[in-house]
């Protein structure tokens, strides 16, 4: 019997080593990592610059309290704010905590304006984390079930539907912010219309709401821009990120600009570990690597190429409902539940993921070779061609 709480069910694969876009199990079998620790290791495994930064910092200073100046934290903050076009940042240890900071920020923004019971608009099928506030914001009744009472202060609209948010605006006079993923990840790799974020920006301006984007999965180059909102002209007031920021080090960030950047004062928020020297120095190596060359452009190109290959190779396959994505965040929606493909992929030496029940999701590294890309694409195509839905 395992001494681990059973939150992940039975785990049958043991990975012990990684290098570049490959990982190895305890029997020495290698896999192409098509999921990157769920959008974490964009730079691949054992990335030299990240490993060097971690060792350097571990040799110098692992941790001091946020009661003191932390030069690696300041340095990362400067670079991340520049990449995000934001003014200020609060560092956390995870995505959910970054969203907690954003939710607290929105509530304080509302309370400071004198709004009673400030309320945040969130979306159907959203995923924002597993803490109580972020679980409440998440649009998944199954994930919420058993954890009632959820928090007050949220109202919900369908994703990719501006008119539905207008209806909420008319019904609820205490809305202070909208929190949305630019591309829904766990919800099934859902890419909204190109004008969704600009229209949301316009709506938020008109109502003096904070536009808050959850870029925990989409940020740090994943969609082919540093942040997904940079595909449009719409700048949010608040953006959260985590996953890819540390390439495996636990770190999250809540960034803000303008009036939103001035909401928190001393004592309003904090974290013992958030912004610690180790995580920040490692993440700085990630940001440097992402912004220092053309890697993010290559993510856009590689993503286009993979999307097109899937469309070509799966054309006319009647099990396929839709093929979509942005950058290296790709989803192939099938007409029936297809969780079993995860195990079948392993036999081919591929790590893939299925989300929202029927959508094969790929979140590969940014550094796959042409050969690795072909192996991943051809393997997934083969799996889908051979897939026989069991009708239950
Ligand atoms: C993963 C994820 C989170 C939660 O991040 P954790 O680090 O697991 O707390 C929140 N929002 C989105 C969009 C995510 O993909």
From TrEMBL:
Q: In which pathway does it act?
A: Amino-acid biosynthesis; L-arginine biosynthesis; N(2)-acetyl-L-ornithine from L-glutamate: step 4/4
Q: Name one GO cellular component term.
A: cytoplasm
Q: Does the keyword Amino-acid biosynthesis apply?
A: yes
Which of UniProt's keywords are assigned here?
A: Amino-acid biosynthesis, Aminotransferase, Arginine biosynthesis, Cytoplasm, Pyridoxal phosphate, Transferase
Q: What class of enzyme is it?
A: transferase
Q: Which cofactor does it need?
A: pyridoxal 5'-phosphate
Give me any GO biological process, just one. Answer: L-arginine biosynthetic process
Q: How is the cofactor bound?
A: Binds 1 pyridoxal phosphate per subunit.
Q: Which PROSITE patterns match?
A: AA_TRANSFER_CLASS_3 (PS00600)
Which reactions are catalysed by this chain?
N(2)-acetyl-L-ornithine + 2-oxoglutarate = N-acetyl-L-glutamate 5-semialdehyde + L-glutamate
**At what positions is N6-(pyridoxal phosphate)lysine found?**
243
Q: Which InterPro entries does the UniProt entry name for this protein?
A: AcOrn/SuccOrn_fam (IPR004636), Aminotrans_3 (IPR005814), Aminotrans_3_PPA_site (IPR049704), Class-III_PLP-dep_AT (IPR050103), PyrdxlP-dep_Trfase (IPR015424), PyrdxlP-dep_Trfase_major (IPR015421), PyrdxlP-dep_Trfase_small (IPR015422)
Subcellular locations according to the entry = Cytoplasm
Q: What is its EC number?
A: 2.6.1.11
Against NCBIfam families, the record matches this protein to:
argD (TIGR00707), PRK01278.1 (NF002325)
The name on file for this protein is Acetylornithine aminotransferase
Name the source organism. Answer: Gilvimarinus xylanilyticus
Origin organism lineage: Bacteria, Pseudomonadati, Pseudomonadota, Gammaproteobacteria, Cellvibrionales
